[in-house]
């Protein structure tokens, strides 16, 4: 990362800015799929690396998001990675990045509570079950 | 092995066979009853006229009545002895894609003895790679070999990928290869066909007599099951299979002597375990379920908390044993490693690196290779820890247990019992904490479409938690959610990785695990990645044909997803964006229908399912089917990871 201080500054300042975007959300969805953002972040921003606004720290503002895309990633690795690729302005314009940002802001994950998901309660019940041979008191 | 009458293999009746047009034509030809018609074919006004006997003789040949039977030249074929020997070894199954070089042995398997085609039962594989993958999955599941029967040079080349992976997972597999050097295509034979796979098998032989062949199969079994376990090969010339055995006896099998720790080492380790205020045992992978049972006995005798690999690979310590977990105090004052290092004393059996002399060509495959060999960074040959003892842990445990029992005084017993209680309570608490954290994280995207992989694993657990199950597929590409959500308490709960990361393994290995499960009231789960299935999907037919309890749940992300991410990353670092990374890495235009693929192979199938609300009911149907002994496939459109 070439400009960690800038990114840190933006990150710290991010909460001060409202999460809003001038981007085109529909176009952002197209770009999200075209650039395979879904491959790590899932089709709904809830993939292995979550990206919904409730969970992601890089969605504080458009500026923070665009900076993250520009500064992210090793520039010349020898070995393949499946970490976040770098996107420079030549391949993803500021406007395109802002459109993606607009789409990301529209994502919302409101899953049920654990208690409302019977399958999770089954997992928990299994964990709480005293295994054979366990005669401990607590 | 016990078999109920209902398990008797289905006989293909004449009516079954005539159920197809192709069957009808063939049956007519072979019977010589040229005018015979069956069923609806009688009504077919466009049916061709039947060929005359003269035309049949001209076009097909060999239709004339055979000469009167004379005395058979061979009364006791050599291959009968080979089959008897396999039964004596307890070989339950032998998987094969048919080949001319083992016609003698195949005939003996299906016809010899009072119970023909049992012990071993011939399993029809549609590809030699599938046959060996099946033996690989079975071997991991049971800790003992299943056999694969392979045809000459071409069969071995097809099988080589699967052999390579079994070698890397150190799984016992018995390989028998037919060789016909006189009567068939020369290109399918060679002087030394074992050389094709020598670099990644543990042992091979090409015996020159029937008696040598029998001893060679015994030795291959010993080699396959001795540490480091692995695939071992015997090349069987076709003439030896067909030779008259006369009064040659079937030799008795002498099991291998596997070296464990010495009595002195056992005493030292036992003294330290007994003296420790808070001992720990770190368990890797044993060879057989017997090793697991002995490890449990040892841990209980000393009241040590235990770490396990059971959520990652087979034959490790039960995950929900009361002693399994971090324990009440992580300040361990003595750790014993069993097939794992980094301990004050670590008993680790010989590794596959110990047989590099078989790499006679110097190819240097995988872990056999010698430096310099960069594999994602500088190569550093593994160095044994200073406390490592090179001895098989499983073979060492009985002696260690005897020593522990000798040293356990009355006061010590009470201390151990108290410690055990504290460990059990702490481990249960740690388990609950870990699960609570895990489910909170996995709640994300619960209702998302396509379906969250965490949801898939969670809902599946609800349905199988009270069953005897085996998760046969690797899970790292589908999130590995089983590791924390499921409880891996049996030696075969999870069969682990491919071996060398070679795709195509999953469906074959799961089929092999299902063969092991079939007569043991067990079900097999295969969370099947789409890229992997497309290599050798024919095992689906094997599962249907042999009625195997295998639930195939497609993790269908319509991509070789790891490679998609690599391409995307590479384009990013070169400043070329990532919008073309799908080229060559995805299954688009057209999408593949796995439900149709499954149905084509005779497996009851459904999907694609993209609505998460429909998932549980589909899984319920699948689990019900496999509990009834039928394979079932559910195509699930999933999140990428």
Can you describe what's shown?
- The complex is a heterodimer of chains A (138) and B (641).
- Chain A is an all-alpha fold and 138 residues long.
- Chain A contains six helices and no strands.
- In chain A, helix 1 packs antiparallel against helix 4, helix 2 packs across helix 5 and helix 4 packs across helix 5.
- The N terminus of chain A is likely disordered.
- In chain B, 38% of the residues lie in helices and 12% in strands.
- In chain B, the strands form three sheets. In chain B, strands 2-1-3-4-6-5 form a six-stranded parallel sheet, with helices on both faces.
- In chain B, strand 15, helix 21 and strand 16 form a beta-alpha-beta unit.
- In chain B, helix 6 runs parallel beside helix 7 and helix 16 packs parallel to helix 18.
- The longest helix of chain B has 33 residues.
- Chain B is globular and about 90 Å long.
- The N terminus of chain B is likely disordered.
- At the A-B interface, helix 3 and helix 6 of A face helix 13, helix 14 and helix 19 of B.
Major sheet characteristics of chain B: 6 strands, parallel
**Residue ranges of chain A: pLDDT <50 for 5 or more in a row?**
1-17
In percent, how helical is the residue content of chain A?
Answer: 40-55%
Instruction: Provide the residue-averaged pLDDT of chain B.
Output: 89
Q: Please tally the helical runs of chain A, counting DSSP H or I stretches of 4 or more residues.
A: 6
Shape of chain B: globular
Rg estimate of chain A, integer Å = 20 Å
Give the distance, in angstroms, between the N- and C-terminal Cα atoms of chain B.
Answer: 40 Å
What gap, in angstroms, lies between the N and C termini of chain A? 50 Å
Fraction of helical residues of chain B:
25-40%
Structural class by helix and strand composition of chain B: alpha/beta
Strand content of chain A: under 5%
User: What is the number of E strands of chain B?
Assistant: 16
Order of helices and strands of chain A: HHHHHH
């Amino acid at each position: 990362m070439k400009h960690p201080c800038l990114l840190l500054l933006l990150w710290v300042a991010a909460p001060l800015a409202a999460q809003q975007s001038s981007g085109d959300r529909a176009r952002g969805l197209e770009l999200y799929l075209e650039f395979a953002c879904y491959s790590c972040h899932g089709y709904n921003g809830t993939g292995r690396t979550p990206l919904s606004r409730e969970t992601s720290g890089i969605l504080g503002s458009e500026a923070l998001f665009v900076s993250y895309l520009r500064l992210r990633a090793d520039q010349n690795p020898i070995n393949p990675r499946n970490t976040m690729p770098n996107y420079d302005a030549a391949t993803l314009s500021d406007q395109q990045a802002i459109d993606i940002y607009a789409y990301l802001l529209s994502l919302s994950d409101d899953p049920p509570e654990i208690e409302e998901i019977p399958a999770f309660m089954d997992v928990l019940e299994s964990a709480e079950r005293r295994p054979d041979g366990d005669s401990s008191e607590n | 092995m016990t078999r109920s009458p209902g398990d008797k293999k289905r006989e293909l009746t004449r009516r079954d066979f005539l159920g197809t047009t192709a069957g009808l034509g063939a049956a007519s030809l072979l019977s010589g009853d040229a005018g015979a018609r069956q069923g609806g074919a009688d009504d077919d006004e466009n049916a061709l006229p039947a060929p005359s006997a003269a035309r049949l003789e001209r076009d097909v040949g060999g239709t004339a009545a055979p000469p009167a039977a004379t005395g058979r030249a061979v009364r006791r074929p050599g291959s009968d002895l080979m089959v008897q020997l396999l039964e004596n070894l307890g070989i339950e199954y032998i998987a094969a894609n048919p080949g001319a070089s083992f016609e003698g042995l195949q005939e003996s398997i299906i016809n010899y003895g009072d119970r023909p085609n049992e012990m071993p039962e011939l399993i029809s594989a549609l590809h030699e790679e599938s046959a060996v993958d099946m033996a690989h999955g079975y071997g991991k599941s049971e800790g003992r070999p299943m056999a694969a029967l392979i045809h000459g040079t071409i069969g071995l080349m097809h099988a080589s990928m699967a052999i390579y992976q079994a070698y890397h997972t150190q799984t016992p597999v018995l390989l028998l290869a037919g060789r016909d050097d006189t009567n068939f295509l020369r290109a399918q034979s060679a002087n030394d066909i074992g050389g094709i796979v020598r670099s990644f098998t543990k042992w091979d032989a090409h015996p020159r007599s029937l008696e040598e062949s029998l001893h060679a199969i015994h030795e291959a079994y010993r080699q396959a099951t001795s540490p480091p376990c692995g695939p071992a090969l015997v090349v069987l010339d076709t003439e030896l299979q067909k030779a008259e055995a006369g009064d040659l006896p079937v030799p008795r099998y002498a099991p291998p002597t596997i070296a464990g720790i010495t009595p002195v080492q056992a005493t030292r380790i036992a003294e330290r375990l007994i003296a420790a205020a808070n001992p720990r045992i770190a368990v890797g992978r044993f060879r057989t379920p017997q090793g697991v049972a002995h490890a449990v006995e040892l841990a209980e005798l000393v009241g040590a908390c235990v770490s396990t690999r059971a959520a990652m690979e087979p034959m490790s310590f039960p995950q929900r044993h009361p002693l399994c977990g971090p324990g009440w105090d992580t300040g361990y004052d003595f750790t014993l490693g069993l097939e794992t290092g980094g301990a004050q004393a670590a008993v680790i059996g010989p590794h596959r690196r110990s047989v590099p002399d078989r790499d006679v060509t110097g190819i240097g495959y995988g872990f056999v290779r010698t430096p310099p060999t960069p594999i994602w960074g500088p190569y550093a040959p593994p160095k044994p820890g200073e406390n490592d003892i090179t001895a098989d842990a499983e073979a060492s445990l009985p002696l260690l247990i005897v020593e522990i029992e000798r040293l356990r005084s009355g006061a010590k017993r009470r201390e151990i019992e108290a410690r055990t209680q504290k460990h059990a309570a702490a481990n249960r608490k740690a388990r609950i904490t870990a699960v609570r954290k895990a489910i909170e994280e996995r709640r994300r995207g619960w209702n998302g479409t396509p379906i969250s992989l965490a949801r898939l694993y969670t809902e599946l657990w609800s349905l199988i938690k009270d069953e005897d199950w085996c998760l046969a597929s690797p899970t790292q590409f589908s999130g590995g959610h089983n590791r924390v959500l499921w409880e891996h308490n049996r030696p075969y709960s999870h069969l682990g990785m491919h071996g060398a990361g070679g795709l195509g393994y999953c469906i074959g290995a799961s089929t092999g695990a299902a063969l092991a499960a079939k007569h043991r009231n067990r079900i097999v789960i295969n969370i099947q990645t789409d890229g992997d299935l497309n290599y050798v999907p024919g095992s689906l037919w094997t599962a249907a044909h042999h009625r195997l309890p295998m639930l195939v749940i497609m993790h269908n992300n319509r991509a070789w997803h790891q490679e998609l991410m690599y391409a995307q990353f590479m384009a990013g670092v070169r400043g070329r964006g990532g919008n073309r990374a799908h080229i060559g890495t995805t299954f688009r235009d057209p999408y593949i229908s796995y439900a149709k693929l499954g149905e084509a192979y005779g497996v009851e199938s459904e999907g694609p399912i993209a609505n998460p609300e429909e998932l549980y009911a589909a899984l319920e149907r699948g689990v019900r089917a496999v509990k009834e002994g039928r394979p079932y496939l559910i195509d699930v459109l999933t999140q990428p990871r």
